[in-house]
Every structure is written in C-alpha cells, then in structure tokens.
Amino acid sequence: MKKILSFYLSVFSLLFISCEAQVKPNDVPLKAEVKNYTFQTVASGIDIPWGMAWLPDRTLLVTEKSGTLYQIKKGVKTKIKNVPKVYVHGQGGLLDIAVHPQYAKNGWIYMTYASDESGGDGGHTKLIRAKIVNGSLTQIQSLYKATPNTTAGQHFGSRIAFDNKGYLYLSIGERGEHFKNPQDIQRDGGKIYRFHDDGSIPKDNPFVNQAGAKKAIYSYGHRNPQGMAKNPTTGAIWTHEHGPQGGDEINIIKKAANYGWPVVTYGIDYDGTTISKQSEKPGIEKPIYYWIPSIAPSGMAFVTGNVYPEWKEHLLVGSLKFQYLELVKLKGNQVIGRQKIATNIGRMRNVAQGPDGYIYMGVEGKGIIRIMPK
What we know:
Blueprint: H1 2-21, E1 30-31, E2 37-43, E3 49-54, E4 60-64, E5 68-73, E6 76-80, E7 94-99, H2 103-106, E8 109-115, E9 124-133, E10 136-145, E11 160-162, E12 168-172, E13 191-195, E14 217-220, E15 225-230, E16 237-241, E17 248-252, E18 289-291, E19 297-302, E20 315-319, E21 324-331, E22 334-341, E23 348-353, E24 359-363, E25 367-373
Parallel strand pairs: 1-22
Antiparallel strand pairs: 2-25, 3-4, 4-5, 5-6, 7-8, 8-9, 9-10, 11-12, 12-13, 13-14, 15-16, 16-17, 17-18, 19-20, 20-21, 21-22, 23-24, 24-25
C-alpha cells in the first residue's frame, strides 16, 4: 500500500511541476489597458531605436538601426562619432548596447551590429566593446563575429546582458537557416553565447571540450531572440524569441540546454505549412510561456522600485506586431497574468527601466518615450 501511495504521489508531483513550468496561452487572457499614466517624449528623430543603456551620470545611449549611436544628456541629443561600419540589410543593422556593470572603473560599453567583415558575401552579427571619449568611440575591440556571412535579411538577433557574476550573454538569431544552424553546435546562429567581459571564453562553458563546437555557445535551439534581461530576484538570464506564425516564447536560459527550434514549435510556417508536428520532446527545454498568435516580441525589462507599484516584480515585453507594451505578471517563474500597456503606441522595438526608475520605450518612427504615472 505504501509503495502504491508513493507511486501516485510521485506522478502527482511530476504533473504539478510540469504544469507550473509552462502555462498555455489560453490559460492567461490578455486584459485591457488601464490608462493610469501619460507619455513623455525624451528624444525624437530616431527612426528605429534598437538598444538603450545608461551611463552612471544618467546619459542615455541609444542605437539606431541604420548605424547611428546617439547620446541624450539633459534633453540634448548628439551623435557619437567613429561608429564602425554597419551592414544595414533587412533586419540587420546597429543593434543592442550595454554598459559594463563596473563602467565607473573601466569605461567599457558593448554593442552588437550586423557586419560584413570576413566570412563571404553578406553579413552576420558581431560583438564589440569600446570607450566613449570626447563624443567618439575609442579603443574599439572585436570580441566575437559569427560566421559564415549570408545575404539573408532575417534573424540577426541581438541582445546583450550581464549576469551577477559578470559574465556577458549574447543572442544571435539563426539567420533564416532553421534546418541548419540552431541544432548544430558547430555552427553559429540560433544560440545564446557566454563570455568573460573581455570576450574570452569561460572554461566551464558547456561545449569547450567538444571537438568542432563553437566554444562560446551556452545554449542552443533558438530562433531569433530579441529580448534578454537578468531577473533581478533570481539572477537568471531570461530571453524571449520570435516564433514563426505563432509560438513566440519566453525562456529561462540554462547551461547546455536545447530550446528546440525547429525540432519542436508551437507555430507553423508563414505559408501555412507544418514545420514540426511536435510541441514537446524529451531532452528539450520547455518555454515558461508562449504566445499564440505571435505578438512579435522585441525588448524585455523587469520592473523594480516603487514608481509603478502595480508592475513591480513583473516583466515588460514590447510587441512589434500589435503595437503595444505587454505587462507579463509573474509568480516566481510562472506567468499568472497579462495586461496591455501603451496600446497603439507604435511598433515597440525596445523597453528598459532607467536609473531614475521610469520605464522607457523605443518606438519605431517616434523615438524614446517615457511612461509617466499619473
């Protein structure tokens, strides 16, 4: 009798864990916007604002996809000089930007962009670091360049995040080669990479000792991650990525984990054909949430502080497709609610929380907009 009881308790526990780990879209309806805030334009004239990061003096750095890096200080917008040549093609251009956690001591900023350097025709995603001196980039160092180049216009990624130990994480999309790149650790694309802050590869990266593998890979089986942020409570790196037609995902990044694309997916191809008949498979990491229909997520930020009490400890995700900001309410690692914010604001390219505690949105065709609670 005890063995039978133990068996059923084990089964119940597994079912509970499985249900807690992943919530179906229909279980969490999207609530309407509650307009208890206004909008304030911080900087206009930035067509596709991709990345945002702040220096310790609260200067805001913004990357514009066409290749311009702006700094916004006390309301004045100026261009930073000596930005490397950017391969502007399709979804590729000047992408993300991040400030070193110890910037006050070392002065390093990090950027990703599409580059046509080495590797054949076309381009691929590159990571650099540099310093800003007298309004110009100096001491530019190449840290990683994905290969081979391709003339395809899609899925460059790309986001940058630091964890609590100072490791740098980088996302690169699979460049449209979904049956070739994401499941092959000997190829770039469809991966999350992990580095030391100088671009060197940690000795405990999962594939360091595997012959032929790209040593910087930390996880694989991704499609096109355009959101990445450190969870301020747990320290884990979270991402979201574009699915095909349906099946955008939120994932918590784990060492050596396979996130399944295109072996498993919750979506279909844009022409209506089936990519995979499986949405789950043993050995493949499940998302904690997925969207059907796709919202085309871009930008990701955890809310801390007390400026927005109702949003605190929850997640913000921008929607390119439906042109709003989504509040993803969390209980631990579980999605328990969703709500529209900034409805019809425009194509949301990025969202970030500034050092002043306010939420900033990068909106295509509008620039940088700050959300002001009433």
